[in-house]
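Problem: given the chain below (234 residues), write out its structure.
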Amino acid sequence: MSDSWDDLASWWADEVSDDPAYEHDVHPVLRELMAPTSGRTIDLGCGEGQGMRVVGGDIVGTDLSHALLRRAGSPFHVVQARLPDLSWLRSGTFDRAFSVYLVDLIQDHRAFFRESARVVAVGGHLIVVINHPVYTAPGSAPLMDPDGEVLWRWGTYFLPGSMPEPAGDRTIEFFHRPMADLLSAAAAEGWALEALIERGLSPRTIARFPEYMGQEHFPRIAGFRWEKMPTDVS
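Solution.
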């Protein structure tokens, strides 16, 4: 298991630049969820800056990897930090926060929702795009029945867990939570769900990766938009 994303920076940048899923699957979901929102923005887990370039505007990016932050570069301001810790920010600093494929990599998702709720002002938004929980469950995988139809094995979907995934010559640990755990954790920190998007892979992505043939209708991407509710002081 890699302890440093700097060790993975070159692999990640190459992987993202060569993967049509970002252009044809991930970014459309991000744009759709961000469209009704505006204001000062923080990209949580900005990596090499791809999400910031998609969203545009007044954005601060933060990531663990110094090497990836160097790639993000101008015109954005970037800060190196280990998420979900946002203690270096004042409360209510931003109008919106977003993250793409970050929550899957964070062991403490409750802290992610708690800290993002603290730094986003009341009435602001949190947008999250992740691998769909159906896809991340340990033991989940496609199966082919005798008639040639591709089915999905759910694995241990209802149990939180993690599993290693190859990343070049290293591995990354992905954390799984069922949808109910994610939505309940967000609600507990004052996030009110406004929109939920579930998507499979696009024809362009499947054409690039033929091993996904027959999986067009499997949930692969989940996107959420929450609004920050005022704290009940009564």
